[in-house]
Amino acid sequence: MAAITxxxxxxxxxxxxLQFEQQLIAYERPFDSxxxxxxxxxxxxxxxxxxxxxxxVATVNNHLIACGYAKIIKxxxxxxxxxxxxxxxMYVAPEFRGQGVIQNIIEQLKQWSISxxxxxxxxxxxxxxxxxxxxxxxxxFKNRMIEMKMDLK
Length: 153
Hints:
Blueprint: E1 4-8, H1 14-28, H2 44-49, E2 53-60, E3 63-74, E4 83-92, H3 101-115, E5 121-122, H4 130-138
Parallel strand pairs: 4-5
Antiparallel strand pairs: 1-2, 2-3, 3-4
């Protein structure tokens, strides 16, 4: 099997990243009944070009197989920290899942955060997405808050 390599995303990666985004949305749609059919989640130009964000991709033979980003978020004024990083767009092509690819991307994003003297990171995951929750817990994430909703119809 060919080696998996990691690098920062470039604008040339956008077409494949847009495909990944739609595959991720399709995967998450059963967890969220209010997702629009033609929605998008991410501002890829910002994630690729901003100094306030880092988008990492994994490749095999120069073909994208995975991605994930971290971006700097200003903390609430009532928190003891002034900023943290928020991680998202954690996607791995199905044939490469279970090989620690996301764990590696998370580690690189964690090191980027630390290099900026940011020592907390957060992410969101659907409560019914048990495989993702287990993967994040394996990397050291802990539940912080539960968001609740109620249908008023």
